[in-house]
């Protein structure tokens, strides 16, 4: 099975939060884990927030960021999906950066792994399979 990993789920996993065991079990069963290249920027920004708001040490956050990036087997380039992502975002009235994950999942026939409730709802509108945390 192919999984599209969203940053919200990756952070939940790598920071050892509540749903880490659930996410870990899904990642371990995956044959291939993918994400749009946007994932790198989003994950980096979250690490910056952990440092700036919670004063986490930079070296620990960089280590966690490397671990997150190593989870991904394939990054999908934006130049390959941006037009479809814009079209999807207009269709469902949802931000383009989230549509990048939706298009990645749809094109690769992957199940989306995210903690973002709005993204889960958007995926269901497009009949993209998504893991349910509830």
Automatic annotation (TrEMBL):
**InterPro entries (alphabetical):** PIN-like_dom_sf (IPR029060), PIN_dom (IPR002716), PIN_Pae0151-like (IPR044153), TypeII_TA_RNase_PINc/VapC (IPR051619)
Q: Does the keyword Magnesium apply?
A: yes
Instruction: Provide an example Pfam family for this protein.
Output: PIN
Ordered alphabetically, the record's keywords are: Magnesium
- Domain PIN, residue spans: 4-123
- Work out whether the entry's keyword set contains Magnesium: yes
Query: Which CDD domains is this protein grouped with?
Result: PIN_Pae0151-like
| Protein name, as recorded | Predicted nucleic acid-binding protein, contains PIN domain
Q: Which organism is it from?
A: Halothermothrix orenii (strain H 168 / OCM 544 / DSM 9562)
């Amino acid at each position: 099975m192919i999984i599209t990993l969203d940053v919200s789920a990756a952070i939940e996993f790598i920071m050892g939060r509540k749903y880490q065991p659930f996410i870990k079990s899904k990642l371990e069963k995956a044959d291939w884990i993918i994400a749009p290249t946007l994932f790198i920027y989003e994950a980096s920004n979250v690490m910056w927030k952990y440092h700036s708001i919670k004063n986490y040490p930079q070296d620990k956050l960089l280590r966690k960021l490397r671990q997150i990036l190593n989870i991904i087997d394939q990054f999908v380039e934006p130049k390959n999906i941006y037009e479809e992502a814009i079209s999807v975002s207009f269709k469902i009235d949802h931000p383009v950066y989230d549509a990048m994950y939706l298009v990645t999942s749809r094109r690769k026939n992957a199940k989306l792994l995210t903690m973002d409730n709005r993204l889960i709802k958007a995926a269901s509108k497009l009949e993209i399979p998504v893991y349910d945390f509830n």
